[in-house]
Design brief:
single chain; about 425 residues; alpha+beta; Aminopeptidase; Nonspecific Lipid-transfer Protein, Chain A; 3 domains; 7-stranded mixed sheet; 12 helices; 19 strands; about 25% helix; NAcTrfase_Eis; GNAT_dom; acyltransferase; transferase
Length: about 425
């Protein structure tokens, strides 16, 4: 078996092979254009082929930026389109492709790789760990009332915020305008880019994704209504993409809500929760620390479900990765990191001062011993090291190690990723 890079001429072969691996057939492009694989970067793809040239496996990667705690933007590879034909599974094809790919990523000078795992049991053995999480919130329309804010400043802000469709209802008020997806592509792109630069765990959406309408709504060509929020000066600063469906068009489903400030998120939530002629509103990607449940007049009105992992993270260079992100507590921690898939092991002294870190090899006794996949899970601050210690996956070598690690690895807010790839 040979693993070879792909070119633009391999696109059809690559697409057919990855679909066959999952037992599916390629969809037919719509009149609006755009299929989910339209943004494949064929100079970053791999094909596993038999000696007679038949493709049996695929792996690809996108070029993204990942927002780290502290607001640093780091280049990452978004691993995608990983599949092996059923006829060649459990023969080492996947492991060979993943090892080959990790070597290529390092050769490009990258220190982080991310993916969305189709099956959680597959990718941990390659060094990836779940690092962001998402869930679904369902709110019955008849229980969708928001409580009045109890804090004085918040109440004053609420009195000036308008959610009327169209122009601002009063001087200094924001507004929500209802548009169709086809009318506001540039607005969505600009607002999302502002949002992702401030949200730990968020990935960039390169312009070519929007131009090619690749991926899922609201990037794709699928018809959607979009509630666009504008500030007092008319500048777009948030949006909610949604559709209405179900057997009797009873469910309003929000693909994603993007907001640059909490007040904007509240205005958009109020807009969709107040929609007539639906019986329930479903928020598909609900961040773990989202305040909406606390804003509902009935706390139990919102039902959480679909709690799942989303972005998985792998460190390719531990010192570079740890010094790239921002930190919010001073301290020192010795990490003993095992990387069995690549056959590597290292012990590192992490020293944090004034929000920046130094990370160097050391022979000091470790505070924590952990697998590189567990380091990926705690890296963005979405998983507390103490949780993995209690689960028996990370070893703490003294009683204070868990609390120190929790304090060091925390982020300014819970990491969240909305982008599908």
């Amino acid at each position: 078996m040979e693993i070879r890079p792909t070119t633009d001429q391999d696109l059809d072969l690559f697409v057919d092979t990855v679909h066959a691996a999952f037992g599916r057939f390629p969809e037919t492009p719509t009149d609006g254009g755009g299929v989910f694989w339209a943004a494949y970067e064929m100079d970053r793809g791999l094909l596993a082929v038999t000696p007679d040239g038949r493709p049996v496996g695929t792996a690809g990667a996108y070029s993204f930026e990942l927002t780290l705690p502290g607001g640093t933007l780091a280049p990452v590879s978004g691993v995608t389109a990983v599949g092996v034909l059923p006829s060649h599974r459990r023969q080492g094809v996947l492991s060979a492709m993943m090892r080959h790919q990790l070597g290529e990523l390092r050769a490009r000078g990258e220190f982080l790789s991310v993916l969305l795992a189709s099956e959680a049991v597959i990718y941990r053995r390659f060094g990836y760990g779940p690092a962001t999480y998402t869930r679904r919130l369902t709110v019955p329309r008849h229980k969708a009332a928001l409580a009045a804010p109890r804090a004085g400043a918040a109440a004053a802000s609420a009195r000036t915020e308008s959610v009327a469709t169209g122009s601002a209802a009063a001087a200094g008020a924001g507004s929500v305008e209802l548009l169709r997806r086809a009318e506001c592509g540039e607005v969505l792109e600009a607002v999302y880019d502002r949002y992702r630069r401030a949200q730990p765990g968020a990935l960039s959406r390169p312009h070519r994704w929007w131009a090619l309408r690749a991926g899922q709504p609201p990037i794709s060509a699928a018809p959607r209504y979009v509630a666009v929020h504008r500030d007092a000066d008319g500048v777009p600063d948030g949006y909610a993409s949604y559709s209405i469906g179900g057997s009797e068009n009873e469910t309003l489903t929000v693909d994603e809500t993007i907001a640059t400030e909490d007040a904007v998120a509240t205005a958009l939530a109020r807009f969709v929760l107040g929609h007539d002629l639906v019986t329930q509103i479903v928020f598909k990607h609900f961040a773990p620390d989202h305040p909406l449940r606390w804003q509902l007049a009935d706390f139990n009105a919102g039902q959480l479900g679909g709690d799942t992992d989303w972005l998985w993270v792998r460190l390719l260079d531990v010192p570079r990765a740890l010094t790239a992100r921002g930190w919010f507590t001073d301290g020192e921690l010795v990490l003993d990191v095992d990387d069995p898939f690549l056959g590597e092991h290292g012990r590192y002294l992490l020293t944090v001062r004034d929000g920046r870190a130094a990370c160097v090899p050391t022979d000091r006794e470790p505070d924590l011993s952990l697998d590189v996949s567990d380091l990926g899970s705690v890296y963005l601050g979405g998983t507390a090291p103490s949780t993995l210690i209690r689960a028996g996956h990370v070893r703490a070598h003294h009683p204070g190690a868990a609390a120190l690690a929790d304090a060091l690895f925390r982020a300014e807010r819970a990491p969240h990723c909305l982008h599908w790839f």
